Amino acid sequence: MDRIRHLLEDEVEPGISRTGALTVAERQVAGRALRTTTPRSTHATWTPPADRPDPIEVLEAQAQTRISDLVPIRYGRMLASPFAFLRGSAAVMAHDLASTPTTGLTVQLCGDCHLANFGVYASPERTLVFDINDFDETLPGPWEWDLKRLAASFLMAGRTFGLRPADSRAVVLRLVETYRTQMYAFAQQSTLAVWYACMSEETVSPRLTSEQRKRLAEGISKAQRRDHLQALSKLTALSGGVRRIVADPPVVTAVESAVLRQNLRAIVRSYRETLQSDRRHLFAEYRLVDVALKVVGGGSVGTHCYIALFIGHDDDDPLFLQLKQAEASVLEPHLPRSKYRHQGRRVVAGQRLMQASSDIFLGWTRSLTGRDYYVRQLRDWKYAVPLEEMLVPQGWLSYAYVCGWTLARAHARSGDRVQLAAYMGPSARLDEAIADFAEAYAEQTERDYAALQAAVESGRIKAQTGV
Q1: pLDDT tens digits, residue range 309-320?
Q2: Based on CB atoms within 10 Å of each CB, which residue in 277, 372, 413, 425 is the most buried?
Q3: Is the entire prediction scored with pTM above 0.85?
């Protein structure tokens, strides 16, 4: 019996809220009672604590474990705008969120929840879904942290892309209102209904104007062209009759070392064992052809990240996988440690819990040198909404809706949706409070961004722009 209990609990992180033996009515009472200990208005404030660390020191501490030649690219990408700085500084905001009020209700967090970490991809059934798509920092923690970071990112993006202050605030209010009202809707639904809930084209389309539907159709068409064959033509070339990934330093670098290539082959073999049996069978149809080091993202730049080309039946049957290094979550200094000692497995478990539908090739592995990785498809109809082309303000309001809906569903799957809904309530009190926080934190981000600029100008750190 103990063995069975251990197997049943294996994939559940400690600390995530369980409903226990409480009735729905009792959970509603408990949720409303939290308004006394943590009034919703307390979420409005942001005041830097006296012991707030220097944000540049936080970034430099992260750089110690990264590929030193690539770290300047990370700083260069963060210099693009205050919004880019916010995207790349999840560790800085984790320190800050740890000093803010929380209710004590815990969910599985994305951990780096900003609006550019949502997007479109293909489900195993080959339908397009919209969901959170980055889980490097996932960990159980206060639901408020994801919502506040997402709200701050919308506010900061609004400033970057030219929205009027009133429009930016309206977008944040739409985001929080959607999260709050959708959590209430999920609280009324069965557990399976919540689990099967998904943001698809059919869900989004009725809420859009004709111009927005036109742009959505264009985006879907682009997404469906971003597949493995498209990656094959863009990223590879024939060399001596053999298909190879084309080097494009410093973004894509060939792996020349025989020892490293052998290590990567061992990584791929151990990864295969983390797939479920039918997918192991599928993966066995492919053979590894080439591997290259690839710079990805903003905050992740400098970590060991590889792209691997596999060929199946013939050259027109490619599979590209991304092997991305997984380090401890930036939230871990402020929260209980993950039960998973393997950081790649932590990422995969969090992703499967939060996403409505996950990549069939999602798995994890460890190198011979002890680095943890998680593995996923490089391109599988993936598409990011082009923020610079968003209709103002209608497009931003619609995007805030789908992000708020999606985050509510992700949190409802792992946390106590009934208590959460009861705490937030039917009024806009929480909406206004989170919008106030977002505006205050945007000012903090502007100051931190200025500190990064000053650090580069003084020579304290080096930045490489345009990469």
Answers
A1: 999 998 889 999
A2: 372
A3: yes
